[in-house]
Design goal:
The complex is a heterodimer of chains A (159) and B (427).
Chain A: H1 4-15, H2 24-35, H3 40-50, H4 54-61, E1 75-80, H5 83-87, H6 90-101, E2 114-119, E3 131-133, E4 136-138, H7 143-156
Parallel strand pairs in A: 1-2
Antiparallel strand pairs in A: 1-3, 3-4
Helix pairs in contact in A: 1-2, 2-3, 3-4, 6-7
Chain B: H1 17-22, H2 27-35, H3 38-48, H4 60-65, E1 76-81, H5 90-97, H6 100-113, E2 117-122, H7 127-142, E3 158-163, H8 173-181, E4 204-208, H9 209-213, H10 215-221, H11 223-227, E5 238-245, E6 252-256, H12 261-266, E7 278-282, E8 291-292, H13 302-307, E9 316-321, H14 326-340, H15 346-363, H16 371-381, H17 389-403, H18 405-414
Parallel strand pairs in B: 1-2, 1-4, 2-3, 5-9
Antiparallel strand pairs in B: 5-6, 7-8, 7-9
The chains are: A alpha+beta (159), B alpha/beta (427).
Chain lengths: 159, 427
């Protein structure tokens, strides 16, 4: 169950759309923010709010890279693996992040603090290699700087 | 030189509403609503020679002219800010500094098209740009420049920001329309083209951020002035070139359209970074065939770049030095396209992973002589895909086989990649 205030906010968003499903991405994102990922329960909530079947929500949810249909850590690190970042050492950075976090790309640390996901171009190509943590872009990130960033996040917990 | 898109920029922050107004911002809109008919605005854009800055380079005014004005129901304008072509970041830089040009440009476009509800479809990851746009829309509305009865002209416009959740195909205009409707973003069959049957089945124009941001200057200073900003008589206006890779200053620059590749790299880019020599570049985003030193003097404009065997695309120039393996570059690009395929049609869904497999084999040293023919065949056959994604993916592969066939053969002959991957993080 989601809090009544969130439900009402989402109902307003849906009511303000040209058609209810126009709000689908916004609704999925807000539910993901609440649950941490788009759980089965969240997908059913979304379906109810949007007047869709859970399968129709699934069809959308699995399409988008930033909608997580599996549990993720409190901090999701997206590491760009497209061409500009690759040319500037993106592969080395990703290997370094894997080592530092003790997980493979795609995995989540045992304490649930970090998920590491390679991702397509983040549009920060002049500052490669680039990573995105939460809503923030960082680049160019050297392996040393990545280490400092992760240490800071570990110290301050989830942002 | 005269700037249009970066003219109002302040270093490191967004230009404020007051600063934009003090620089003459929204004067074009005031003038258009007071003195010009919608058709005058469209004609000025046609006369300017403005071509779409999102990749395809279609003449903008002509695109607008395809929209029937007599069908019942609403018409829509969508700004495509789903900038996900690897190597392309110009729209982000523009919006982080100045959302006003887009807001004013869209309002002018909507006036020309008779549109009362428009959308800005922006990608995930461009959080600051989205914040700027929402703030800009709210301020413009408070100033009476958006919303009901703009400047008491009788013209009204609602402008909404739709933030996507990350998928390259959403930048394809019919897929984008599906995404905006909340439908899985597979592309739609064309025809009918969006100009006739687009968003919710209504006539719709989809234009890029940079394209629409040029409209205020065209209206304010006239099409002839704007056209004359280019470096050659055939080109029109300025262009945002965003450079990445092995140059000294990989930044986004506004330059006259038709500036040569060599002038861009030796000029604002400050040449190659220390220790690097130019080997090749991608001239216009991930889906465009490579340029080499023989293309140094090509004017970076739509037709000259096409004549030289590539596409101006988005203006995202990715530069590689002598240490770069072009098979590895192409493999990286094909991996991107294979992963981003929406899976809707067979040539793209099955063809791209197969091409990826062949390139992996070659790069890993187990390529065979026949692989080159297989790749050539796919360059040809993936043109039968449903949308432009797979043919675009074949751009760099075609370039690889045309310009670097020797390098591919060397991989096969030696049974290994003759380069080490350039793990050259400089910072």
């Amino acid at each position: 169950m989601i809090p009544e205030s969130l439900r009402q906010e989402l109902q307003r968003r849906v009511a303000g759309a040209v058609t209810p499903r126009e709000a689908a991405v916004d609704v999925m994102k807000e539910l993901q923010r609440h649950y941490g990922w788009l759980s089965d329960e969240a997908a059913e909530e979304a379906a109810g709010l949007l007047g869709l079947s859970p399968l129709q929500v699934e069809e959308l949810a699995t399409f988008y890279e930033m909608i997580y249909r599996r549990p993720v850590g409190r901090n999701v690190i997206h590491a760009c693996d497209s061409i500009s970042c690759w040319a500037m050492g993106g592969e080395t950075l990703l290997r370094h992040l894997e080592q530092q976090l003790g997980i493979e790309a795609g995995g989540t640390t045992r304490d649930g603090a970090f998920t590491l996901l390679p991702c397509p171009c983040l549009g920060n190509c002049g500052n490669g290699p680039t990573i995105m943590i939460g809503d923030r872009l960082f680049g160019p990130v050297s392996p040393e700087q990545a280490g400092i960033l992760i240490h800071e996040l570990q110290r301050h917990g989830a942002d | 030189m005269e700037l249009v898109l970066f003219r109002h920029n302040r270093p490191g922050r967004m230009t404020s509403f007051d600063e934009y107004r003090a620089d003459g911002g929204f004067n074009a809109l005031t003038r258009a609503l007071g003195e010009l008919s919608p058709n005058d605005v469209q004609q000025a854009v046609i006369d300017s020679g403005l071509r779409g800055r999102g990749g395809a380079g279609f003449p903008t005014g002509r695109k607008w002219s395809f929209v029937p004005r007599d069908l019942p129901g609403p018409r829509y304008l969508i700004c495509n800010s789903d900038e996900m072509e690897p190597g392309t970041y110009k729209d982000r830089v523009l919006l982080e500094h100045n959302p006003w040009l887009l807001i004013e440009g869209m309002t002018l476009a909507c006036y020309a098209l008779g549109v009362n509800h428009a959308f800005i479809f922006i990608r995930r990851g461009y959080e600051q740009a989205a914040v700027n746009l929402r703030q800009g829309i709210a301020e413009a509305r408070r100033a009476g420049l958006l919303g009901e009865n703009i400047l008491k002209s009788g013209f009204s416009l609602e402008l909404d920001v739709h933030q996507s959740a990350g998928r390259y195909i959403c930048g394809e205009e019919t897929a984008l329309i599906n995404a905006l409707e909340g439908i899985r973003a597979n592309p739609r069959a064309k025809p009918p083209f969006p100009a006739i049957k687009g968003l919710w089945g209504q006539p719709t124009v989809v234009n890029n951020v940079e394209t629409l941001s040029n409209v205020p200057a065209i209206i304010a200073n006239g099409p002839a002035w704007w056209q004359g900003l280019a470096a050659t008589p055939e080109a029109a206006g300025t262009k945002l070139f965003c450079i990445s890779g092995h140059v000294a200053n990989p930044e986004c620059f506004e330059l006259p359209l038709g500036t040569t590749l060599g002038e861009i790299i030796d000029g604002p880019c400050g040449g190659m970074r220390p220790g690097s020599r130019f080997k090749a570049c991608i001239p216009g985003g991930a889906s465009t065939p490579f340029f080499t030193h023989e293309h140094w003097d090509v004017a970076m404009d739509f037709d000259p770049v096409a004549k030289a065997g590539s596409r101006l695309g988005t203006g995202g120039i990715i530069v590689f030095d002598q240490s770069t393996c072009m098979v590895a570059v192409t493999l990286n690009l094909i991996r991107f396209f294979a992963r981003e395929s929406c899976g809707w049609c067979t040539p793209c869904r099955e063809g791209l992973p197969f091409v990826r497999h062949i390139l992996e084999k070659i790069e890993n040293g187990s390529g065979e002589a026949g692989d080159i023919d297989i790749l050539r065949e796919h360059v040809h056959k993936l043109n039968y895909a449903f949308c432009a994604l797979a043919p675009g993916a074949m751009g760099p592969l075609e370039g690889l086989l045309r310009l670097f066939e020797d390098e591919v053969r060397e991989h096969i002959a030696k049974g290994a990649c003759p380069f080490t991957t350039p793990n050259l993080c400089q910072n």
